Amino acid sequence: MRLLISNRKALTPVVASIILCGVVLTVGISVWSYTYSITRSLEDNYYEKVKRQIDAVSERFIVEHISYDNTSSVLNVWVFNYGEVDVQVDVYVRGDSEGRNATGILIPNGQIVAVSVSLAAEVGDELSIMVISRRQNIVYSTYIVSSS
Amino acid sequence: MSTRLILSHLLKSRTAISTVLGMLIFVGILFTCVMPFFLYINQVNSLYERKIIEMKQFDQERSLEKLDVYAYPLNQSSNQISLYIKNRSPFTVEIVRIWINDQYIPYSIQIPGTNECTTDPIDIQDILPHENVESFYIKVTTARGNMFPSQTNPLQYSSDYGWSGGHSFAINLVIEMDAGVYNFIISVTSSNGTTIYDEEVWVLHSVSLMRKISVSGPDTYHIRVVQTMGIDRTCERDVQITLEEPTKWVYMDYPEDFQ
Q: What parts of chain B have a pLDDT lower than 70?
């Protein structure tokens, strides 16, 4: 010990080794921590992206019934969500009369909702109805206005 | 020998411990971050593919769903209708709604594959017209999102004459009875003696039985229904189908109309 203290040159390699180890550990742990947080973030983003795709492919809905109320000039489009996820839909009507309801009506899974579209139609008008979900799935239907 | 050389070289080298530490950290990053990341991605991809397969199966089942629906009034002036539904698909079908014109009635009934059922009477007093004639279009919706219209559409109701037939040449036969077990043999022959319909039907705890018998055209048809459980009892009717009235409703009450 006395020899080591008296030999000042011997201390330098030891201190250098300790400093080097400390630097390696600090940089290594920082890199590990950064990589860990980046991969977790990438995982979450990827899951969210795939979850959105899964919801889009699980979405199922139909136009179950259509009726036109001549007195109030309202076309009622009953949309049935028979899929596994809730859907938000907009209804566009083209043809002899035009109208839309783009308020993003929410239809919980397993439920039926009547979407009202205001339009002025005559008896015998042919209407093309497009129901588009916010996940970009589309269902079409046609309707000939009858006397109600 | 070579191991001893490497060890002695490492012990002499100042950077040896740091190199080992660096390598350990690198391997640690590989095993705790990179590999779990790829395994996770793989799992999420499997989830997506599994969902696609599930939905394809769901769509296939939906496309195979097939029901024969017959809506019928319980008697000539009844304010109630029933639906006789035959499931022609191989799996259970759940009915979630019955539509009568623009109104729907939430309903829940499950019909096992290739089975049939008759719904409880549905009261439609509120929508029957108090004057003139009105047509009723009836359809059912299944949980898989299919719709099946009644083959007896349209049912026509007149406030003066009650229910009348549709547009095709047919005899709609309705037998009403108390709940129980019955065995009916239904046969229909045309005026020249040709049998155009012959069926044996078991009725289990239903209160009505309905059959739509399509006929070839105007003629007088002879309907013979025999109930064979216990003592045989028979009910016979002659029905005239004309161009003016192509569909006729025939009602038989058991046991009142049977001898």
A: 1-15, 165-166
Query: Could you give the CA distance from residue A132 to residue A126 in angstroms, rounded to a whole number?
Result: 20
Rounded Cα distance between A64 and B167, Å, is 25
- Quote the domain boundaries for residue A82: 60-144
**ipTM exceeding cut-off 0.85 for this assembly:** no
Chain A hits for B144, CB-CB cut-off 8 Å, are 82
Q: Which residue of B has its CA nearest to A109?
A: B143
pTM (predicted TM-score): 0.76
With an 8 Å Cβ cutoff, are B147 and A64 in contact?
Answer: yes
The fold of the B66-161 domain, in CATH, is: Immunoglobulin-like (2.60.40)
Distance from the first to the final alpha carbon of chain A: 108
**Per CATH, domain B165-259 is 3.30.465.10:** no
In sequence order, what DSSP letters do the residues of A69-123 get, joined into one string?
A: ETTTTEEEEEEEE-SSS-EEEEEEEEESS-EEEEEEEEE-TT-EEEEEEE----T
